[in-house]
Specification:
- Strand 5, helix 8 and strand 6 form a beta-alpha-beta unit.
- An eight-stranded mixed sheet has the order 1-2-4-3-5-6-7-8, sandwiched between helices.
- It is of the alpha/beta class.
Length: 383
């Protein structure tokens, strides 16, 4: 082993040992990474640099070339830590399209303007875009509020409310264009923002890949079932929302059925695939490191208990799932839905799947509007 590598190894060992007592749950090594993130990249880097300078002073005080090699290597390691311990994980939780309204500063704040092409310009509100009156509603748990729209059919309400769940970085408007055909078929619709999204409470932390979002979904279920005239509930979600719909249905057995559009099978798997998609040159161990840091940010002990491919096995028998996915989905491959469909028991359990040719992520309704409406309504009517 080269002499100049000794200070680097010593510095890393010292940092790890000095913080090891802070790691309460030894089953999850990401707790150490969480410590580094929470206590600051700069502080950790300074500690490493200080330890290495001390080692240099003790071991090789007269060799200037060797000193420069060690300092250069140390600074490289410190700089390389930043993207994998801070920047990339933050980007995965708050993607470029992520926007949130701080309602503490703007109590009457409105959703940010957007020109998301998949939403086809239907981005204002139910009255403006669909001609339906709506109520601004709030609900929540643990002192934080989710905000959304409750839209009722104009006549002959059938008693079922479809709770609609958006994806990472989006907001309630993800399903606004879908709502009209459900309302015309006498279903009520609840469109709301997860915490840390849209106009709901939060600190702009972004997505928690199911931890907060499932809690919000459970709160939404209780909210609609307490409303007069609503006696049953269905969940309809896309992307992260599609996975959360499955997870919530395994916990709250009052859910009648689930429509899950382009869901993922497992958080760790989809994080790895997302990183590989945007950084194909990255070695596998760095992809996994970045994914584990995201787990650490959110809470590894919570996320490992919320894997859709594991939880779907405990879905109650009465609750059926319709999976919808496009073959040109480059965010979440359609193989995720196929795998979840198989793990749910497939057609033998009464579940359905529709793999739409040439449809992109969240874009199936746009290119197959008639097929989409028929498939969803036939499923809801049979639930």
């Amino acid at each position: 082993m080269a002499v100049w590598s000794v200070p680097i190894i010593v510095s890393l060992i010292v940092v790890i040992l000095s913080n090891f007592p802070k790691i309460k749950d030894k089953r999850y090594p990401t707790k150490f990474l969480l410590f580094l993130v929470k206590h600051g990249f700069i502080r950790t880097s300074i500690a490493q640099l200080g330890i290495i300078l001390m080692c240099l002073w003790l071991l090789i005080p007269r060799n200037q070339i060797l000193t420069l090699k060690v300092l250069g290597t140390t600074l490289s390691i410190i700089l390389l830590q930043y993207p994998f311990l801070a920047f990339f994980p933050r980007l995965l939780m708050t993607p470029p399209h992520y926007k949130r309204v701080d309602m503490s500063n703007k109590p009457n704040g409105k959703l940010h303007p957007t020109n998301h092409p998949m939403w086809q310009g239907i981005t204002q509100d139910p009255k403006t875009n669909l001609g339906y009156d709506y109520q601004d509603v709030e609900f929540g748990r643990q002192g934080q509020r989710c905000r959304g729209w409750l839209i009722e059919p104009k006549e002959n309400k059938n008693g079922m409310c479809v709770v609609m769940l958006h994806g990472t970085g989006r907001d309630r408007r993800a399903f606004l264009r879908h709502s009209k055909f459900l309302l015309e078929s006498h279903y009520s619709c609840l469109l709301f923002d997860f915490r840390e999204h849209g106009c709901s409470d939060g600190n702009s932390l972004g997505s928690s890949y199911g931890v907060r979002e499932v809690e919000d979904t459970l709160a939404a279920i209780s909210f609609v079932l307490e409303r007069e005239g609503i006696n049953s509930c269905a969940l309809m979600g896309t992307s992260l929302g599609g996975s959360c719909a499955i997870l919530a249905a395994t916990i709250d057995h009052r859910v009648r059925c689930v429509i899950s559009e382009n869901p993922f099978t497992d958080q760790f798997i989809i994080l790895n695939e997302t990183i590989q998609q945007f950084l194909p040159f990255l070695p596998k161990f760095l992809r996994e490191l970045t994914a584990r840091v995201v787990f650490a940010h959110i809470g590894a002990d919570k996320l490992v208990k919320l894997s859709p491919q594991e939880k779907i096995k405990s879905l109650p028998l009465h609750c059926k799932i319709l999976f919808i996915h496009g073959t040109k989905d480059h965010r979440v491959s359609h193989t995720h839905s196929i795998e979840l469909f198989d793990k749910s028991g497939g057609e033998k359990s009464g579940n359905k799947i529709w793999i739409a040719e040439d449809a992109e992520h969240t874009g199936i309704f746009n290119i197959y509007p008639h097929e989409y409406k028929k498939t969803v309504l036939d499923f809801l009517n049979s639930a």
